[in-house]
Amino acid sequence: DKGLKHFADLGYQPIGEADLWQEYPEILLYSGAMLRPGLQRAIDAFQEREGVMINTVYNGCGILVSQMKAGEKPEAYVSCDISFMETVQDRFLPSKRLTENDMVILVKKGNPKQIKGLADLAKPNISVGLAHPEKSALGKLTEVLLKANGLDQLILKNTKVDSPTGDFLVNQVRAGSLDAVIVYRSNGMSNPDNLATHLDLIEIRLDPVSEATTTAVQPYAIAKDSKHKHLLGRFFEQVSTRESRSVFESFGFRWITKTEGNDG
After folding, report:
1. Tens of pLDDT along 102-121?
2. The predicted structure's pLDDT at residue 260
3. Are 20 and 227 within 8 A, CB to CB?
4. 212 in a structural domain
């Protein structure tokens, strides 16, 4: 307290709510599994620069939300979609939209079942994999999408697998256990070999008047009771650099938040 007064007397502006001082801070970060490829490089660079440890928990956002409601307290959260941020927003400072990502259909290379769009997933002898609607944002968005198009019950008959994460579904269709899956574009692009060698990507086309969406928006938020708000603010800046943005875009994300030297 005496030190801050001395700095103020010299013309410095003290910070109202400074971070807790720790020689080696540890931060608990919750993130949707779909963000792992884009986030990890930024996390590694930030840890090296700041001398901190960011302990990450990646999972389906429905599972992460359930853990928070059961008492877990991450200091920051990157959600797969704003819908899974809103349910816990009261625990966090106002969120910032970071990226967006489209849902797509993935099939085996060459598309042997000739799947052209959502309606084809309801045809006989098509084995489909979907994300779980309660355990993941991907599953919830898929459920809303199929219901809006009157396909939910028809495709449910062909659904052989439901998973809390899209990466598991990608592995299943790649292995030949499934004919088609609905996942995020980033799930398909997480491994360069997927689309180059093993899988075809089919865009989901919607009627222009449809109220459904194929796009998920990923927000970032800092916990209200975090002891490292300034540190986590700098982490957001790290994630928002041009280098980090290029990594996210290489995995199929589209950037929303402004970056250094970027106007949009």
Report:
1. 999 999 999 999 999 999 99
2. 40
3. yes
4. no
Residue recorded with tokens 């910032």: 96
Residue 84 and residue 155 in one domain: no
pLDDT at 261: 38
Calculate the alpha carbon distances from 132 to 68, 144, 155 in Å. Answer: 19, 12, 14
CATH number, domain of 145, equals 3.40.190.10
pTM here?
0.86
Structural domain including 61 reads 26-100+217-255
Collapse the DSSP code of 172 into the 3-class scheme (helix H, G, I; strand E, B; otherwise coil) and give the result.
Answer: helix
Same domain, 107 and 180: yes
CA separation for the pair 228, 112 (Å, rounded):
52
Same domain, 191 and 150: yes
Please name which of 159, 165, 147 lies closest in space to residue 122, comparing C-alpha atoms.
159
E-strand spans in the chain?
A: 26-32, 53-59, 76-78, 96-108, 128-131, 159-163, 180-184, 199-203, 215-222, 254-255
Give the number of other CB atoms < 10 A from CB of residue 58. Answer: 18
Residues 100, 165: Cα–Cα separation, whole Å? 17
